[in-house]
Amino acid sequence: MVITPILKTAIMKFRYILPIAALALMTTACSDDEPAGNPVIGYESPATKACFGDNIPFTVHVSDADVALSTLKAQLFFGEEMVQEQVIRTKENNTDYSGEIYVPYYANIPDGTATLRFVLQNINKTVTVEEYPVAITHPDYPYLTLVADGNEYRMEPQGNGLYSVTASFPQKIKATIVAPKTGENGNEIVFGYESNAVVVGAEGQIPFSNASAGRYTVSFDTRTFATAPFVVLKVNDTEMTGIDDNTARVDLSLMQGQAITFDGIAGISEYWLDPDWFATDADGNVTFAAASGSYRIIADQKLKYFRVQALASGAPASLGADATGSIWVIGENFGKPSLANTTGWVTENSVCMAPIGNKKFRLTLVGGQQISTGSINFKFFGGALSWDNEFDHTTLTSTSPVVLIGDGNGHDKGNLYLAEGSSLKEGVTYVFTIDLSAGNNAGVLSVEEK
Fold first, then answer.
1. pTM
2. What CATH number is attached to the domain comprising 58?
3. Do 130 and 159 belong together in one domain?
4. Percent helix, percent strand, percent coil in the chain, to nearest 5
5. What is the pLDDT at residue 170?
6. How far apart are CA 169 and CA 167, in angstroms?
């Protein structure tokens, strides 16, 4: 939860009691002939205690013998900060007004004493203020309910506000937690998810995640709102930011040959590590294989691979006039981590070639796995995730007798295709390299079998 300076102040001061039943009377009259009046508050049987999430009911008798009344305000303070207010129009004099005020439920606020303040004002703006202490504690729920995918799981108390349930769950579940109404003035409380934090009343679901599917324990602390398991994904000890349910990203400055570590990623041994970006030795150690620079690593937990993009000023890098940045690939008959994820003619699916230094860029594909063996149809762009700066047969030539570049005669300009009667080999690695050392308009494509 993002804590504002006001809320921080409230948290810090919540343990301290404001002056009890203080009475302030301020008089303002329109002229010397108009009486100031004397608003009188009668609050009998005041509430002395409540729980976070409760409604505090009140009945207040209000009167002014000389001047008509205007408003009655009920205000709740945590320390010196007002956290809730109810305003009642007092159309009738010398009568009772009833209402209730909600006690907000936030994370990391200790039990303490709040202040219930009543402010009564007449039409001449004369004001009477009275304050009453209310002891606020965390509710002691008999159980909580975890609601996930239409199923309900009873979470049992473990002490000190902690609740948990152990059951068979998927590796990732999205759920809300529901606390039952307790006490005469309690409310059912729904703990949801908003702005990467658990928040009372939020409509979003809490994204629990475990290292793997199976039987594990889900827990929730009603005092701190801490949840578990809540696996944090990291690359080189830097936390990744969630993009959606299946992907997360992190931006890093990396050196060629630098060690790469992955933490918190379920099933990491099943991930395909793209050889354009990662090198793995016999002991399983991973190092960065592209040129030194700034990069975005995107963990795709559904497809189980890491998509990497070159960056410039924090955004995917287009090809610069000096051949900095990168080249992007769009089209058919190829895809990473496999042909099941064919790139297609969709700009947001563009594959970033790995800069390898000396104005060269690399794309590595295995026949029958990341590239079709019978036909190919893709092309290169200088614009990041866009159709901009398209390479064609006038700006890019091929040294390969098998992989050719279309010139508009039977094949679209700039599109790669296989020479007539040629095919790629199943299981053979093909390294596509573009060399721009002679300039961006004089690129040379080579295709090497490995």
1. 0.62
2. 2.60.40.640
3. no
4. 5, 50, 45
5. 86
6. 6
